[in-house]
Design brief:
Blueprint lengths: L1 E12 L2 E12 L3 E5 L6 H8 L7 E6 L12 E4 L11 H11 L4 H14 L15 H13 L5 E5 L7 H16 L3 E6 L2 H7 L2 E6 L2 E7 H7 L4 E6 L12 E6 L3 E6 L5 H10 L4 E7 L3 H11 L2
Parallel strand pairs: 3-7, 3-8, 5-6, 6-7
Antiparallel strand pairs: 1-2, 1-4, 8-9, 10-12, 10-13, 11-12
Helix pairs in contact: 2-3, 2-4
């Protein structure tokens, strides 16, 4: 069942076309990623979906209906531009957002306490927002968007500025919310995070949809002769073999696409003969990062 449908939507600001005839559909109970570089139109698309701004043309449906005010309490939204009341206590902040979404005060306070324990901030429950670090504030803002247990959750760049440990915590929470039946849409330009989460994605560039599908469909479409290689030390020489078509650097790991006529035995032998010390060598499907870079280059 389609939870959200965006159909041929466009939005311009003066001479700039922020979103250009964009269409996508999100199934109920799935995690959907809108991916693209900064300025691609991700935030504008989300704001139109939430009826914050209106499209110039096209249609948007939630459960087959245009946006209605009554839908707001069922939606959780984390905006890209964060904003909390700095003088309010953590407890009061979470209860405030929960009650805005229709929760009773007693239920709001119970949920607030459970959530701060879940994210490891129980010792800060009675402290003011301004006393929290930036990362702590971001976790509180994240919780404020889902404390009312919405069945539609929309995150705009949810991992921006978070350290790896807190990022992993938020990833786990999003997966847990999906298991409970929530439909999640999020935008990001950090592809590694998206690959851990999404069921389906849309890649957009300059407001246009350049690729859509389930993660499995997209990886199958771009299936190629690709190897994931782990090295003792970072070594860019791994890309100097004449049959290497594409190289993505992940630090001491590389994702390498080679010509179709080069098998794994030849490639491994050439690496060993060149003196490069390897820790891992495996043939893999292309990563979302690799696909993204390929598609974006083709669209230039």
């Amino acid at each position: 069942m389609e939870k959200i449908v965006i159909k041929n939507v466009s939005k311009s600001y003066g001479e700039v076309k922020a979103v250009d005839n964009l269409s996508l559909s999100i199934e109920s109970g799935k995690i959907y990623g809108i991916l693209g570089p900064n300025g691609a139109g991700k935030t504008t698309t989300i704001r139109m979906l939430l009826n914050i701004i209106s499209p110039d043309s096209g249609e948007i449906f939630i459960e087959g209906k245009p946006f209605e005010e009554s839908m707001k309490d069922r939606i959780g939204y984390l905006p890209e531009e964060r904003g909390l009341y700095r003088k309010m206590k953590v407890k009061d902040t979470l209860c405030f957002f929960a009650e805005l979404k229709g929760m009773k005060p007693k239920d709001a306070q119970k949920a607030a306490k459970e959530w701060v324990e879940k994210i490891g901030l129980e010792d800060w429950f009675e402290r003011k927002i301004e006393e929290l670090s930036k990362g702590m504030q971001q976790k509180i803002q994240f919780v404020s968007s889902i404390i009312h247990n919405p069945d539609i959750i929309i995150f705009d760049e949810p991992f921006s500025g978070l350290d790896p440990l807190n990022t992993e915590m938020l990833l786990d929470i999003m997966i847990e919310m999906k298991r409970k039946g929530s439909t999640i849409l999020f935008s990001t330009h950090i592809l590694e995070h998206a690959e851990k989460l999404v069921d389906s994605v849309t890649l957009i560039k300059k407001g246009k949809n350049v690729l859509s599908g389930t993660l499995e469909e997209i990886k199958n479409e771009f299936s190629a002769n690709i190897f994931r290689i782990g090295l003792e030390d970072e070594n860019p020489k791994i890309g100097e073999f004449p049959y290497v078509k594409n190289l993505t650097n992940f630090g001491k790991e590389y994702e390498v696409e080679v010509e179709d006529n080069v098998d794994s035995v030849k490639f491994l032998k050439d690496i060993v003969d060149s003196g490069i010390k390897i820790l891992k060598f495996e043939k893999v499907q292309p990563s979302l990062t690799n696909i993204y870079l390929k598609v974006m280059k083709e669209e230039e």
